[in-house]
Amino acid sequence: MQLWDGGRGRRGGRDRAAVRRTLLVASTGGHLEELTRLRRRMPSLGEVEWATFDDAQSRSLLAGETVHYVRYIAPRDLAATLAVSREALRIVRQGGYDLVVSTGAAIAVPFLGAARALGRSSHYVESAARSQGPSLTGRLVSRLPGLRLYTQYPGWADDRWRHGVSLFDAYEAEDSARPLARAQRVVVTLGTMRTYGFRSAVEALVDVLPDVITPDAEVLWQFGCTDVSGLPVDGRASVPAQEMREAVEAADLVIAHAGIGSALSALDAGLCPVLLPRRAARGEHVDDHQLLIAEDLGARGIAVSRDPRSLTADDLRRALATRVRLGVPAAFELTR
User: Fold this and answer.
1) CA distance 267 to 263
2) How many CA atoms lie less than 13 Å away from 218 in the CB half-sphere?
3) Which of 92, 109, 122, 178 is the most exposed place for a label (fewest CB within 10 A)?
4) 26-35, 62-71, 170-179, 184-193: which range is least confident on average?
């Protein structure tokens, strides 16, 4: 990992003042996936470095990048958030960044706080998961004076939250001319969360998945921290990003928790994912934002949204019969 020299004037033989420098900050999972995509749509970022957590996804997704790894912050873990604050201040001060941009979640709080304290131009893009208003992280960082705020949905934009672009706007559904009767390759991914299991999804798929796959089908199961003891499945807690991407691209069917990263990966592969939202009432997440994601993509016709406990084989067949096309995405201009 290459590191900035503490702001003493030169980096890599060039005058630092001549090069714009940006720190991109995101928790692993969907937040990091979103930011890697938004980066490609944001002009004039200049030299880019990253701050995130250390796991298989970030190591794979950010291979070859300059990355500052900090300790993991679980959802709503105030103690861990405070513990990272001192490190965030050091990284932002020594990095000499002109911009700090984050898509959340909790890691955004210490880094954007440090950036504003040091007078850096700072930007927070609310997740595409939040179709009806800001997340807890969004509400917290919105209190920082001078922070630029963006929503991916025009319905709740206001004088503080500017409407940027949505990661999902460029996708369109189309019926397959020859829908598959059964799937030969399937990816089931429950994300990489370290604190919330999703056993109800696995139990539902054990019942209905055999009805839509071939006898020799290949099924990749990625469980996260879900307890699958006693269930007739074989999989892994975590799959490196590149391996997961290749598996999705080769798949006939993708079934996922309703996380942003999982949904985007399937859509990029031209697939209509089956999204199973985690529910807070069942202890599967901190809130029901995944329900909002699934409902929004279902309404767009680019995903099949279903509660795991009401999932049927016909839901899976509908996803198999739909393909998704990607148009030309719009640029995301940051406010100066």
Assistant:
1) 6
2) 6
3) 178
4) 170-179
